[in-house]
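[Q] Does anyone have a clean structure-token version of this?
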Amino acid sequence: MSVEALTHPLLAGAAHGFIGRRGGVSVDDLAGLNVSYSDDDPALTAENRRRATDAVLPGGMLQTCYQIHSPDVVTVTDCWADADRPRADALVTDRTGVVLGVLTADCAPVLFHDPTAGVVGAAHAGWKGAFTGVTDATLAAMEALGARRENVAAVVGPCIAQKSYEVDAAFEARFAEQSAENERFFRAGREGHAWFDLEGYVASRLRDAGVGRVGMLGEDTYAQEERFYSFRRATHRKEASYGRQISLIGLSAS
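[A] Here you go.
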């Protein structure tokens, strides 16, 4: 089975792909293209990362970070080894041949491209990172490299959909306190609970920040076991571990 790399026309000027779990070498609960070193054989993870990168930009140098659900961004100027990856949740660069990658398993991956300035970015936007402004920080870091947010295209990739994302009242209240307009991202559920639209919230943050073009893939990680890993699905099933997929973007030299 070949690697599945979902693309979006808004990002057509950059090498990119939202990679699922198909086409990998991991086994058991992690079966497929798991790109996380947690709970997996490092050799299998490394091979999966190589396959994912080659599906987007053959020969590209993959750069990822140690994700901590923060708004922190790193500008990639020199490449690092996996063991030395910085603690952050977004990456930006203007260097050709570098492939930026963020890992997810229900959280929202966001890929950015300013074709005029030749700058790309990738952000891991779980609810906490999105809430605290990881996409805003990514745009600011891109601007420091010469990008203009009105020229930026940003696409929200596969993540847990509203129909699959039940949260409690305290969670909803946190977003309502941030802005009364956030109530539109919640749909009432059973008593004391609601259903949260993470994808819609992230896309709204991007539009409010002045991003020129915003897209969404509309792919639910929780509901598509054959295509995507899902932390929440694995938790509900009481599985021992769960895999992560990767979303990638880079600038080719040609």
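[Q] Thanks! Anything notable?
[A] The first strand starts at residue 5 and ends at 6.
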